[in-house]
Amino acid sequence: MLGACSASRPSSSSEARSVVQRYYAALESSKGASACALLSESAKEEVVSPLKLFRDLKPVTDCATMVRRHAALMRKLAGDEIGAVTLMSDRATVTVTKPGTRPHEVLLVKTPSGWRISKLDLGLRKPIGG
Questions:
Q1: Is the CB of residue 36 less than 8 Å from the CB of residue 60?
Q2: Residue 4 falls within a domain, yes or no?
Q3: Rounded Cα–Cα distance for residues 107 and 116 (Å)
Q4: Where is 94: in which H helix or E strand?
Q5: Tell me: the pLDDT tens digits for 80-104?
Q6: Cα 7 vs. chain centroid, distance in angstroms?
Q7: Range of the domain at 54
């Protein structure tokens, strides 16, 4: 009986992978609130903090606005392939690849609300020699 219950529940690995897939889908479609809902509080701050350095720019103080304003950059993430998931208790690492760029990792933390992205490495840089 217990086996039947656990078979219907997704594994932690598939749940973590799903969060990353939904995050990238939200970025591609400029759905800032949906993308940011999948981030931990520290990751949300990581998204907006670089623009706080530029006083000439109209300040962006929330993650959803940042994603919407920079939709073109976010669409560069289209076509990324979600790869291996490594679980370490309440943390997970998902490897993401895209042709022409170096593989990068998305770090997740398990919260009471489920898996949330805790650290972003968007991998937008070209690989060395590439």
A1: no
A2: no
A3: 9
A4: strand 91-97
A5: 788 889 999 999 999 988 777 788 8
A6: 27
A7: 12-119
